[in-house]
Amino acid sequence: MKLYVVCDGPPSYACRMALKALNIPCELVDVNYNIGEHLTDEYFKLNPQKEIPVLDDNGFILSESIAIMQYLCDQYAPENPIYPKEPKQRALVNQRLCFNMLFYYKHIFQYTIAPQFFDFPRDELGKKKVELSLNTYETYLKKKNTKYAAGDCLTIADIGLISGTLPLEGIGYKFDHYPLVTKWYNTFKSENPELWEIAQIDVDQIAEFEKNNPDLSKLNHPLYPPRKN
Ligand SMILES: N[C@@H](CCC(=O)N[C@@H](CS)C(=O)NCC(=O)O)C(=O)O
Q1: What is the per-residue pLDDT across 178-217, written as a single tens digit (0 to 9) for each?
Q2: Same domain assignment for residues 66 and 120
Q3: Structure confidence by residue, pLDDT tens digits, 152-179
Q4: How far is Cα 71 from Cα 52, in angstroms, rounded to an integer?
Q5: Is residue 202 included in any domain, yes or no?
Q6: Ligand 1 atom closest to Cα of 14?
């Protein structure tokens, strides 16, 4: 099994954490974003969306980190509570995963990682979206009053949301005015050190890119204008 990953991409780290949680051996193939390895014809055959990560499970090719995590659970650990089978529990996990990808992480990404690469402003509007996202997640945690994102045990929803939250730590953005999000984040770290070890690599990479913006001189991105130095 191979997983195509990018060095600072939270969706890649979510898949890596899921593999670790399920104890699935997998070869990591590093895709060099800065020189546009994901924009080549060869990569296009793997993922016409030209996005990273992609899973290659012995010729079964799958993109989209949420789908990859769900597949790994269903295929290799169908009884594992990390992706519960009971429809309502599973629906809540799926809801949290969608919430993360389409709302929470989207806003966090635009404020944290995107400006390190491209001409995305880190401005008041972006900050408002981050605060709205954190406030929404805080409200979800308050409503359910559970230790983890979708219940009292760890699920792939936590893995997705941890990867979505960690860019804030990477750029030193404080979110301790959200006590439940903070408690959940710290609980994940202390109870799942083998998973956090993977997340920490991403925090460190994002922190490094914060100090030294990535060199994109060899990347001619078709969608995003380059960062203004
Ligand atoms: N929905 C995708 C999002 C993946 C994604 O945004 N990947 C980024 C790297 S972290 C990417 O490949 N972006 C393509 C680009 O910027 O050209 C997933 O979860 O797999």
Answers
A1: 999 999 999 999 999 999 999 999 999 999 999 999 999 8
A2: no
A3: 999 999 999 999 999 999 999 999 999 9
A4: 16
A5: yes
A6: 19
Domain count, the chain: 2
Clarify whether residues 44 and 94 are in a common domain.
no
Say whether both 136 and 115 belong to one domain: yes
Closest CA to 6 of 150, 14, 93: 14
| Cβ 202 vs Cβ 163: under 8 Å | yes
Same domain, 61 and 102: no
Same domain, yes or no, for 57 and 126? no
Q: Residues near ligand 1 with C-beta < 6 Å?
A: 6, 9, 11, 38, 50-53, 64-65, 101
Q: Which residues are marked as active site?
A: 12
Nearest to 100 by CA among 21, 188, 159, 168: 159
Ligand 1 center–CA 53 separation, angstroms: 7
